Each structure stands twice: as structure tokens, then as C-alpha cells.
């Protein structure tokens, strides 16, 4: 499955919202009723960390300014009010079909 | 607190071998599916291989199939990646990661919640 993110880079003023799109070449809806789309953030010099699992569930400790939405093949990550600590590269990932694949990444920087 | 600590990376010549280890703590290791994910310099993330909690089921990405072997020692809470016939394109940071939900592993679904800090592998003459 090919996973495509847009945009590839984003420059955001602190306090403003940001949105990243992720599209998959096949539906990520499984027969078990779950949709296996995930969002990760890799801050500079760090390992990736899970933000959102199964489209819209925030992982433990993730601030509520992060939200995920979508269905089937189209998904969105939204940051309601960007903070300086949100800089890094955001990846979406599909976990329904082997090999599990990531999008190209979206680099978010602060203006 | 769950922690993963990779080791074993380094410089190796093309065609050589290397064995990576990932020591886990703070979790019930034997019931957790695990994966290796790599990141070439300046590039994105690429899933490499996965193994079930028992070690009885494994999956590999096509670029490493037949060259890499994933295994685990549940008595020592340690995950391994044996890398053989290494190529320049295997140069990357290798991360071990815990699957967020191991129950779906056997029907081919997976994703990762906790990641290690990574270990660098450089394949060069």
C-alpha cells in the first residue's frame, strides 16, 4: 500500500492551527471494524513517538490539541494551536497490509 | 516505565554481517509482538521485520527477506536482528519497537507504540 502525505513541509505561526493529509492507495478498514491508520511525530534528534492510533485515538500523554480524523483511504491530522515543541516530522502509517508502510513525512516548523 | 535499548550497530563492509540486540524492560515481554524499523540518513521510516510474542511467527520486508533473521529470547527480554549479506542500502538507524496491540499480529496487522533510541548501522568499504 502506498501512503501519500501532503504537504511535505509546513511553516506555522505559534497558536495557529495546522493540518496534514494522508491518503492510502487501499482502504485501511479491516474486517474487525478497526481502521489501521496511525500518526507519529519524530522530533529533531529523537526517535518517533506515537501520537494517534486507529485514526483518532490519542496515545497516552498526547495533548488534546492533536486530533485525527478520516476513514477508508483519506485521513487528517490536525493541531488546533501549534506550539514550539510541536516541530518535527510527522508520519502517517498504515498497519493493515504487510509490509506496513509510512508516508514520506511532513516537516513542521515554526515561523 | 517501558524502555527499549538497542545495541550492536557499527561499521561493516559490504557482504558482512551484524547482529543487533534490543533489551526491553517494564513490560510483559513474552506477550508483546516486536518490530525493527529503520531510517536511512535523511530519509523516512521503513518497517523491516516483526516477530510475535512467542517467536513463532515472523514477517519481513522484501528488501531484507532471505538476508535478515529476527528472533527473540523471552527469558532475557531481548529482541535480535541478525543481518547478513549487508549492502550499502542497509545503512540506517535501526529502531526496535513494541507493537501497540499484539492481538492482531497473526492476521497481519500491526503498528508500534514505544520505540527505542536506535542504533546506527553503516555498510561501507
Structural class designation of chain A: mainly beta
Estimate the mean pLDDT confidence of chain A.
97
Approximate strand percentage of chain A:
over 45%
Helical segment tally of chain A? 0
Q: What is the residue-mean pLDDT of chain B, rounded to a whole number?
A: 96
How many distinct helices of chain B?
Answer: 0
**Parts with pLDDT < 50 across at least 5 consecutive residues of chain B:** none
- Poorly predicted regions of chain A: none
Evaluate the radius of gyration of chain A. 13 Å
Descriptive terms for the model:
heterodimer, A: 111 residues, mainly beta, seven-stranded mixed β-sheet, four-stranded antiparallel β-sheet, 0% helix, 50% strand, B: 125 residues, 49% strand
Provide an overview of this structure:
The complex is a heterodimer of chains A (111) and B (125). In chain A, 38% of the residues are buried. Chain A has strands spanning 3-6, 9-12, 18-24, 37-42, 48-53, 57-58, 66-71, 74-79, 88-94, 101-102, 106-110. The mean pLDDT of chain A is 97. With 111 residues, chain A is mostly beta strands. In chain A, a hairpin with a 3-residue loop joins strand 5 and strand 6 (57-58). In chain B, the strands form two sheets. In chain B, strands 2, 4, 5, 6, 9, 10 and 11 form a seven-stranded mixed β-sheet that branches. The interface between A and B is medium-sized, with 26 and 22 residues.
